[in-house]
Records
---
Amino acid sequence: MKKSIFSLLFAILGFSLPGHTQPNPCLIDIYPMGWPNTFPYYCTGDTLGFMFYSPGINTQYDSLIIHWGDGTSSGVNTNNFQTVVMHVYTQSGTYFPFLEGLGGTCGDTLMPFQVYGDVNPGDTLQYGIINYIEVSDGCALQSGRAFIDSDGNCTYSSNDVPLAGKSVLAYSGNNVIGLVFTNQDGIFAFNGPPGVNFKIYNYQLSSSLFPNCGTSSSGAETTANSTNDFVFNCNGGFDLSITSGSTFLAQTMFTPIFFNVCNEGCTAVSNPTVTFQFPSQVIPENPGSVVVYLPGSWTQLIPTVSGSSVSFTIPTILTPQTCVSGYLKAQANPQNTILGTEVCVVFSVEPSSGDSNPNNNTSSTCMTVVTSYDPNDKQGQCDNKNAQGDIEANKPLIYTIRFQNEGNFPARDIRITDTLDVNLNWNSVQLLGCSHPVQVWMNDNVLTFFFDEIWLPSMAVNEPASHGHVIFTVHQDPNLPPQTTIKNNADIFFDYNAPVRTNTVVSVIKSIGLEEDQTSSFRMAPNPAQEALYLNGKVDVPMEFRLLDATGRTVLSQILTKEGQHVHLHNVKNGIYTAHLTLGGKSLTVQKIIVMR
């Protein structure tokens, strides 16, 4: 499969023919490759135009064809940088337009592109659509839907509940050949060889769901029925769950701790209550306001603070398979925390009485204390600990990408691309939570999150609502050897601005026998470090400091004689090291140190 992704930009333009009188409007539903959107058009005489920008596309495909979905198609001149192709829908109806690239490789679903509307007076065209290139080489477009069959007729209808954000594996025989995601309506689509089977990992499904209507379950996977649909019945009540992905906590400023509350069950639950249990090393923002993203809007809540607990009720009805996200800001207490150490917060959601699976009502997240943070960053967790540095083998990683609009105008669309490391199982990706509705797709190991029509406010205008996030999990490849490095960062695109590159989360499979001493009173800070390390702890006699790389080679050594003495890191490359403090040949502490500029 190709290793590159190209961006195409289409614009829908409404054109009126000379001397033409607009007829009465009628409704045309356009379903581009599984992403339903409704576009009202004037049905006769009003021309639909696609403006096609194709830098360099002629080197990738023999030809490009637009299929309009009504039995007609148009060729695209790939030799021109810009081409306008016109079409007229003469009748109302439901259409599935898509762009087909001839001469590519079967199985590639490349080049996600946007469609924008430039509305003429009198038209009511809605903005925003996602489409995909279909590559023809013996391929077939296959699609399906995942849903809870509320009315029991095995066919999706308005009474049924779609399962959104689920990762779906495409199998050819026993081999996984692709990964796609269900959209907000539970629809997924895959372009590949005929006869593909689709499966869902069962860990994405609530224990209240069981397959029906030809959908079958075996082992860790559920297989779609003969029409590629995942149809489930539900035999329980509500199922509240809560997740969080924050792994950094600043000493110098209040940092958002994001959370997602979901109802994964079958019946609605009203006004769920969330509780954060903070240790003494964590200070919630005063007065402790919470920002919650409800459908189509955001709400600021004032929680109840009781000792070390912060509780708040979300004023909404969580219907089956829906989520609410938000954040609470907190700060590391500089009086009793040391840079580089970890503090943990326990969070829970109620009611638990009547919950079909109370085991996922409580969770925890551990955060590394830092001096400050970038609002557009990448964070990683492994086994509830910060994944920056040593991690255990065979443990899934949880990544959180945080973003904030620091510009001076609302961000209409936000796109995030995340290139997964070769040591990760790309087919195991699962969406855990997001601040706003998101569409997800994957090409090879490039994972894309698209927030369509997010209109994220500028922080200068509305700081509480200027934040957003996405949380996903991915498994390591099995049995990675010690010292294997896993790197991950992301690019955040605010509309058509240059991407914002996040920090890189560098994880290293832990060597057997090397344990960091968390009990010692001697610590080196800050961690991660840039130009220097400082010694925290009372020093009575000279101590030896040594910094070792992953191979055990000493890259830096120095004698320390007083508290606060610094060690210059100018000649130390970015990476993960172990710092050893010894006195008379006796080890005082072993500490993991990250150098990251």
Note: The chain has four domains: 8-136, 140-234, 374-513, 523-595.
---
Amino acid sequence: MTEKIAKILKSVIKEDVEVAVSASESAGWRIGFGHYSSNVAFKLAKIAGKSPLEVAKDLAGKLSLNKEFEKVEAAAPGFVNFWLKPEYFQEELAVILKQKDKYGKNEYLKGQKIMVDYTDPNPFKEFHIGHLMSNAIGESLCRIFEWNGAKVVRVCYQGDVGLHVAKTIWGILQDINNFPKDSANLSEKIAFLGKSYVLGSQKYEDDKVAAEEIKEINKKVFERSDKQINILYEKGKKWSLKHFDEVYKKLGTKFDHFILESSVISDAEKIVREFLKKGVFEESNGAVVFPGEKYGLHTRVFINSQGLPTYETKDIGLAKKKMSLEKGLTSSLIVTANEQNDYFRVVFKALEFIFPEYAKISKHIGHGMLRFASGKMSSRAGNVITAESLIGEVEKLVEAKIAEQKLTEKEKKEIKDVVSIGAIKYSILRQAIGGDIIFDLEKSISFEGDSGPYLQYAYTRAKSVLEKASNPPAGGKVKPSLKHAPKEISELEVMLSRFSEIVERSGKEQAPHYIATYLIELARVFNAYYAKFKIVDAKDEYSPYKVALTSAFMQVMKNGLEILGIKVPEKM
């Protein structure tokens, strides 16, 4: 609708100016702001030498007879406000009820093929809350792109080689007698790897002898030259990947490609050495570096003095791997913590010389940190917060919250699983990508206010209304119908009509928080409607319309949560 109104505005404007139209804030149309508004009069006033209000009144006069609008008014200091006819909103309800799960989808990104690389946990290290953030953001972006018509390719890059592996294996060797047996459960195995990594990381920093031993192990892992290390490596890697698969399943993510670091090293090193000869890279103190200072960046090592490729080189190999796996990519995004912003600026600059076409479509999306009272958690310090432990803590709180409810054990488990993941994902996605998030356990599971469970509860409340409408003893059977609508529309119809625009805006700006913010406002409006009106009443001539409106709300809420990667429970 914003585009449609902008087009109508342009038809009466002679000057070549950009015309912007925006939806009014919630309920703004009730206090004179219209359903939509434009500030184009301010731009035209400068050209015409008139006041913005004078120009706005002139535009409103020209547009007031347009059949699309119920009325058009000018408002100080120079806005043009538009009210749409009730029929528009009622027709949109019909579209929602007809399209159901497809409502909100568009073709803004049709023809685009977007690869999104996200989550990226490293075997031999625990799946921590940083990976959880990357997963929530990356998965929601994938779904936003798909709802905007793009073909999306999901990629997970997992670091199965490198110094972190050597640190873990060194830690394992210090406690080899307690190495988990094959019969041990996976949680015990992962905990042992995590403890070994912490020990190895600490000694690498504090003990020069241990640091040299770890470097030697790192070399042996690359060379596959030590039988015992090879056995530990294969078992640790197998455990980690199996554990990651469990987490992906819980989070509702299915990747199209898993790429291991070990699969890109050989090609990557050859490429860097080839472009060393071409002058893209330089030799420095026995290492191969990219001279970032030449381009206003910083210099980074691509092959270290031991002759081993670094993460930077592997990312060059990863780029080649991605291009070979998927032809015709129009965008290639990498979602990681914003601590790596400068790192990727250097890598992408190097890629400009090696794979220039790929560099043009590459983008790094840096997100903030998930923080608690103690600040950023560090695996180096041994107090890493794993995804598993955070999910577990939230599950306990949800379990306690629903303990007294009359539900079956199966229903309680479903609610616990769905609400816990929803609470965490919403807490991550509710604000713009890039900023740090202060995670509050109690607030995250609240059934009131700004939380995932609040959205899920609004959905299940609407669902219970519809169940009541189809169950005569509960209040009289009422079939949903839009045939007999009230003369005046409510705030709920207005909010529902904006979902498609929010989806498109989220796609254009790569911003899941627009969806999250919209859903919270939509839930608030529905809850207010629910409190004000008796929806199911066989004696009320407007009850069929109100039931249909409730059904439309439930559908839009479900679609919006689907985009965020949040499931809806059957009961709460």
Note: Residues 264-325+338-366 form one domain.
